Amino acid sequence: MKTPSTFVLLALVALLQGCALAPGQHLSSRDLAHGDAANDSQLTLIQITPKLLAMDRASAKVTALPAALLDYQPQPYRIGVGDTLYITVWDHPELTSPAGPQQQPLANGRLVRSDGTLFYPYVGLLKVTGMTIEQLREALSNKLAAYIEKPQVDVNVIGYQSQRVLLQGAFLKTDPQPITAVPLTLAQVLGTATINTQEANLSGLVLNRDGHNYHIDLDTLNRNGNLAQDIYLKSGDRLFLPYNDRQEAYVVGEVVRPMAISFKTADLTLNQALGRAGGLNQTTAKGKSVYVIRGVRDLEQAPAEIFHLDAQSPAAFALASQFKVEPGDVVFVGAAGITRWSRFASQLLPFSGLISSVANTQYDLHN
């Protein structure tokens, strides 16, 4: 029969084995080389060094706007179904304002019908869709010349309904915006729609035109002189600004505030990520153990990369200020050795009562 002291020994051995099997707080290339063979091909340890950052800058893709967007120049406005026109024939108020001059211009407007035609006195039905304002003015002048000597005709669009730009996503106002006789720029649309700066992914704007998706980084545009004002939009364009709730990096371990960080732009640095999390916990963190784990979502296709930063010296934060964190990255700060021991001690404390009770029982049995 096993004695009470034997039970105490077995309990301590089990506890120590559990602690020995707990994951370590610091990785090294030796750890990976001597690790589980099943996981060797899934992990790659990379040191964050000036050379690595220089290589990343050299291989970084320059974000440039597609030439198709910058080269597009708006054409004269063409009348479409649903537009309302105000036609003026000078010295002929009965033609200009049949509802009376005291009425609002809209009451005297001429609606382009669903079949693309417009009715006008002495002219009858006239196919106007696809015409420019100048072409319609000339057509009316020519037809009215049979009834009016040298007619002077003016045409204005007072209700734009046929041509629009559609918006979806992280805008405060997603109402369709009309294309008018005045060319419409991307900057004007964004200003009217008002970006939800708290929830938008500013680097992920997509402009869909003629079946093609053009990706636009608004943050980069603003820093390069607001080129959004140089991009003209045309009827049928669709703008989608994604939310940033699916673009997150995760800061865990020995930081003040472990958290998920949403990406508003594409240039979050390691310093910024750690700063938003309150920085390293001065009591429990091990500055030598700062890792960025990348690529864990697709381990079957490529190994996960683990970038290591030795942040024990202030110079390391100069490297962290240039290292880019990407969506899906996990930033992990390991614990200091004294922290591991204190945690082990705290796990051991609940067993102290058991040990004392067993010892007292053993003493009673022997006496």
Indicate the topology:
Elements: H1 4-21, H2 29-33, E1 43-47, H3 50-59, H4 67-71, E2 84-89, H5 93-96, E3 110-111, E4 117-120, E5 124-127, H6 133-144, E6 153-159, E7 164-169, E8 177-178, H7 186-193, E9 205-209, E10 212-216, H8 218-223, E11 238-241, E12 248-253, E13 259-262, H9 270-276, E14 285-294, E15 304-309, H10 316-320, E16 330-335, H11 337-366
Parallel strand pairs: 1-15, 7-11, 12-16
Antiparallel strand pairs: 2-3, 2-6, 4-5, 7-8, 9-10, 9-11, 12-13, 14-15, 14-16
Helix pairs in contact: 1-11
Report on this structure.
Belongs to the BexD/CtrA/VexA family. Keywords: Cell outer membrane, Ion transport, Lipoprotein, Membrane, Palmitate, Polysaccharide transport, Porin, Signal, Sugar transport, Transmembrane, Transmembrane beta strand, Transport. InterPro entries: Poly_export (IPR049712), Poly_export_N (IPR003715), SLBB_dom (IPR054765). Helix content is 30%, strand content 22%. The chain has 367 residues and is an alpha+beta fold. The chain folds into three domains: 125 residues, Outer membrane lipoprotein wza domain like (Outer membrane lipoprotein wza fold like, Roll); 87 residues, Outer membrane lipoprotein wza domain like (Outer membrane lipoprotein wza fold like, Roll); 76 residues, wza like fold. Strand 4 and strand 5 form a beta hairpin. Helix 1 runs antiparallel to helix 11. The longest helix is centred in the C-terminal third of the chain and has 30 residues. The radius of gyration is 36 Å and the shape is rod-shaped. It starts with a helix and ends with a helix. 21% of the residues are buried.
